């Protein structure tokens, strides 16, 4: 008998296929109530309340799959699950509409002060003049993050007669045009919007995205909404901008710490809040429970799942053969994604020499996963990378060549953006490591590791010295430096490996040097 623990409240209708299966026992209890039996469950289904920590995974010795009825997997230690060989799946689109509608409900409530008016009338007051709002019609809505939820919010905003401006560095023009929105830079959005709503994942790049610097660029009287993840709008900065009257009102469904406890933001009359209710509708809960229940059933029947967000077990044999290229490809994907920080349409990969004879599917997926990681909300890995690339309109192809072109093996990557193309070639040298031997049209030779700094400049005497002096003056130690040029006196590049990450201000300083065209921080 297969045993499934459903640890958080989940729709019975969604769970029906599992409940109806006579070979499955479904136990609907909290983890704390089945401590003695934890090692007897094959599957664990959760929403966001249960924290699937490494300790819990250690106790659930028989566990094979964790199903998250929702999008974000912040409550699951996916790395630990992968290490323990536990497949993690989620339900990426079952709650999209609910969250978009909740965002809209928050927007309307915010500008019409409905929660405040509701409390006032319930307190037996009748103070109509205290609750004069503003219309949504004709207002400029800024949407940061234009994925599943962001695009549904846009459709609703247009129906309300709003002007919609979108910032998403990974959005292709074709997709934006299909929905009919104004695609702009973050600065343009901040300057134009009367109301800003965020719909990105919480990542290194989006944490504090609306912090002191960017909030200062918004219109005085702006309204802000966060129904994505706490921390995308920095809570401390929000307090300052509410106190000085710059921000007219805020709607929050999510917090940096949940529950937020006695948070100072809760004392502002113009801050309205809900307890992470974006996905809390009957329909969304049926959708997400149905999706994970079906997937768990498929998995338990030994068939491949489609919404897995961590690694399947590779056979040891195949893994040993591809491991080195799998790591090189991941690093190349990460580098290319950072270099091409713009929408891309196609990724072409050519395997040459000995690597061309291997099982390259996983190598390609590893490269795609590295490329997509900074761009998507849910965890992306070899299992779901191809599906996500397709979903985002990024085509990818593989070519093979027996000739290694001066190398025993090489992987050549070409990324096609809307306005530019980027190429890179990497090789793995046994007992030596990974090397990038071609970067953006320049022959070069560097290890794709650590804190890298790419500088494209004119080949003139003194350039290396100028860069070295600035870094030295700021106590940034250069570990290695590789240079390359197309012709004497022509375009040239430096790739520096630094002992610590570079501040953005230093990047700006380097950009000011005459004869330097491009400065990019790259982190692997
Ligand atoms: N409040 C709630 O109950 C719920 C919250 N969520 C949260 O909503 C968020 C969005 O979810 P989905 O739309 O399903 O995800 P998605 O992956 O479809 O969309 C995220 C979008 O953000 C964009 N993005 C990534 N980094 C960015 C950056 N630095 N700047 C601007 N855009 C960036 C991506 O290109 C992508 O288009 C997630 O954080 C998710 O966890 C999702 C469901 C329910
Ligand atoms: O399960 C829930 O209610 C939270 C949903 C959510 O935040 C998500 O799906 O990312």
TrEMBL record:
Pathway given in the UniProt record: Amino-acid biosynthesis; L-serine biosynthesis; L-serine from 3-phospho-D-glycerate: step 1/3
Catalytically driven reaction(s): (R)-2-hydroxyglutarate + NAD(+) = 2-oxoglutarate + NADH + H(+); (2R)-3-phosphoglycerate + NAD(+) = 3-phosphooxypyruvate + NADH + H(+)
A biological process from GO: L-serine biosynthetic process
Keyword Oxidoreductase belongs to the record: yes
Keywords: Amino-acid biosynthesis, NAD, Oxidoreductase, Serine biosynthesis
Main enzyme class: oxidoreductase
SUPFAM superfamilies: ACT-like, Formate/glycerate dehydrogenase catalytic domain-like, NAD(P)-binding Rossmann-fold domains, Serine metabolism enzymes domain
InterPro entries attached to this UniProt entry: ACT-like_dom_sf, ACT_dom, ASB_dom_sf, D-2-hydroxyacid_DH, D-isomer_2_OHA_DH_cat_dom, D-isomer_DH_CS, D-isomer_DH_CS1, D-isomer_DH_NAD-bd
Record has Oxidoreductase as a keyword: yes
UniProt GO molecular function: NAD binding; phosphoglycerate dehydrogenase activity
A Pfam match: PGDH_inter
Record EC number: 1.1.1.95
Domain annotation ACT: ranges: 452-524
Classification via PROSITE patterns: ACT, D_2_HYDROXYACID_DH_1, D_2_HYDROXYACID_DH_2, D_2_HYDROXYACID_DH_3
Listed PANTHER family: D-ISOMER SPECIFIC 2-HYDROXYACID DEHYDROGENASE FAMILY PROTEIN (AFU_ORTHOLOGUE AFUA_6G10090) (PTHR42789)
General function of this protein: Catalyzes the reversible oxidation of 3-phospho-D-glycerate to 3-phosphonooxypyruvate, the first step of the phosphorylated L-serine biosynthesis pathway. Also catalyzes the reversible oxidation of 2-hydroxyglutarate to 2-oxoglutarate.
Family as reported in the entry's similarity comment: Belongs to the D-isomer specific 2-hydroxyacid dehydrogenase family.
Name of the protein described by the UniProt record: D-3-phosphoglycerate dehydrogenase
Source organism of the structure: Anoxybacillus suryakundensis
